[in-house]
Amino acid sequence: MVFLQVSVLLLLAWCFGAVQLSQRARVLHSAPMWLAVVWALGIVACIGLGASGLLRYGDWQSLTTGQALHRLFGEGSLAMRRSEWPALNRAAGVYLNLDVVWTLLALCVAQFHSAMFWSGVAERRRHARALRQRAG
Fold first, then answer.
1. Are 22 and 121 in contact (CB under 8 A)?
2. Local confidence pLDDT in tens for the 136 residues of the chain
3. 3-state DSSP call for residue 58?
4. Which residues contact 18 (CB under 8 A, 6 or more apart)?
């Protein structure tokens, strides 16, 4: 279930760049880049929190993915249930023990890639429209 949630989140982050294709939503064209910057600032904040824990207590104090999801969904939530496959449970356990900065990094990369990919598609559409208007 955890991998499904992360996959949906990454897919949403990547698809959000498609807002650049809309002519009516001119105000939102820069939103995917701003969201990517927010993900990057989250990464910096997590690393800063972990580093401050190293200086104060001698231990990395950043939030793990499991702690973040438990705080988000609550203890004993159905969203955090285990699967029937032991290998998938082990992989989910490894992922949940990772620092949340890795998830934020994946979201940041997906968001930047999305913004670049969809801006390229939008630019090709604008160029084709301009060529049709010149020819017609």
1. no
2. 677 788 888 888 888 888 877 777 777 778 888 888 888 988 888 888 888 888 888 887 888 888 888 887 877 777 777 778 888 888 888 888 888 888 889 888 998 888 888 888 888 988 999 999 998 7
3. coil
4. 114, 118
Q: Nearest-CA neighbor of 2 among 107, 56, 77, 112? A: 77
Find out whether 114 and 17 touch, Cβ atoms under 8 Å: yes
Distance CA 5, CA 135 (A): 48
- Residue 20: which of 32, 38, 36 has the closest Cα? 32
Please state, in angstroms and rounded to a whole number, the distance separating the CA atoms of residues 68 and 78. 15
Instruction: Look at phi and psi of residue 99 and say left if phi exceeds 0, alpha if psi is from -120 to 50, else beta.
Output: beta
CA dihedral of 68, 74, 76, 80, whole degrees rounded to 10: -40
* 79, 3, 11, 27: CA torsion to nearest 10: 50
